[in-house]
Model the fold of this input.
Amino acid sequence: MCKQNILQWINEHHPSFTDMAQKIWENPELSYGEIYASELQISRLIEAGFDIKKRIGNVQTAFVAEYGTGKPIIGILGEFDALPGLSQKVSPAREEVVQNGPGHGCGHNLLGTAGVEAVLALKQVMDQARLPGTIRYYGCPAEEELSGKTFMARAGAFDDLDCALTWHPGTSNEVTNNSLQAMTSMKFYFKGITAHAGAAPHAGRSALDAVELMNVGSNYMREHILDGSRIHYCITNGGLTPNIVPDKASVWYYLRGATKKIVKEMEKRLQKIAQGAALMTETEVTWEIVASPYETFCNDTLNDLIYDNMLQISSQEFTEEEISFTKELVSTLNTNSEVRLEEFMEEVLPIACQNNKLLKGTTFGASTDVGDVCWITPVGQFMTTCAPAGVQFHTWQATASFGSSIGFKGMHFAAKTMALTLYDLLLNKDNVLEKAKKEFISSTKGKTYVPGIPDSMVPVTNA
Done:
């Protein structure tokens, strides 16, 4: 009956958590500035009797909420930051709430709220059944900057966990069997000599020329990196006016690869390209690493348990109005993409649960700082249907979906899945914790986690 009690409690409290997710969606905050979202969640957890530790890793919006005592210690990873430029109404047409404002195009308004919902549901059963063990909700900032959990990990926040669970809003109900890539975020700063671009260009040394030469070099480097690796960049400072030779210019790079080792090699090569560009232009260059999460990898033991619990929950039911909305939304997608829209029209909102083992060993092109936690403790991961098939993250269509009833239904499904899985883990059903730990040791091959950011790097305190 305990699992039924969990599901019943979540069903009865749907409105309050829908309200929390909607409020966070209506008040989007960028990485390291998630004051409203973090305080909203903290106040609800304190009210329920959780102990709160704030400013984890000296990050102003990072916190841990804990309930219970003793072993096992199970964590839920939550996030709540938004993205720049993705402000959008719940509309199938492009309608910004605030021009060029931020928006929840990755669904973190749902992601963290489901975690709060799950631990509060389990807390009720822990009290009723006097279950031993400790549950924690981790309020993790700045996932979009790919560094919030790294600061928390550097502070030892995850070291004593027996395992952790997380999820992400998606376009289907499935456990995450593939891996997300390791990544390094680097900023390069060039310093030259200013001059009048018309009267005395010979006296200047253009920092912008150095940036552009570096970018050319990195584009030639693309031919000589491993398949599936990625190089992205944007020029963050290109000078002030064409008639002044820029003495300062900067460029921001993301490097991605299947493993941390691959990315570290790419880092070294990119640094040499930057030095070469500086040499060619007689400028100077410095750089800094601002994020460097590890690759993720699946834990079959935990993912199988998650999948079993997904199957115990009644699937989402979507109304005709919701299906009509999603079809309108899908019609706005790029029809020149490799995926044809007609493929989605029969089932724009998939509700079947999947556990595709064939994905294990494959790599998905995105990255997340969840990878850091994966190298510290076993992590189970999954996704639920919160947006129509074909909608991509980091788009206005995603923001519209994640602020709609469709997103909220997927969030509640995720909360139920995590709460039921937490219950099994606290009871250590079939020695699942020992099995998950054994698999974790095999996956990490005994390697000890070392944060990818420099020791000297400090977190941003105000975004």
Remarks:
- The chain is about 35% helix and 20% strand.
- The chain has two domains: 2-180+295-444, 182-291.
- The first strand starts at residue 51 and ends at 54.
- Residues 337-342 have pLDDT under 50 and may be disordered.
